[in-house]
Give the backbone structure.
Amino acid sequence: MEALSAAEFQIIQTMLVKQYGPDSLFLGQLAGTRVESRRMTGVGIFVDLLVGGDAGRVDDINSEISGSYMTSLRSPGDLVGFTLFIRSGYLNFLEGYTFGDVKWPEEPMEKWLKLAKPERTAVRP
């Protein structure tokens, strides 16, 4: 298992704050979340999340949160989307995808994804 990349961490954090607010218990889960596996699909990426054992479940929420992000790439690759899956009150899975069958870049997201500075940060271990 490995740590979330800085971009993955910020994407998830931004989605959680926007959906559940800056005091969300999901931010506590995020602080201890690791990557169980990461797979490229050609037009996206799948990131299976593993929440630390001491993180509390947030009710029994089953939800998906989606958002789009600009990139430094030329159109039609200038926009990508992400969906965060929450299952049984735990962060579960992050999917990144392009629009229009555009190839997902092989370079790390930090090199081409345009991310805004987060309003609040979860504490990373």
Notes: The chain has two helices and six strands. The chain has one domain: 2-111. The radius of gyration is 14 Å.
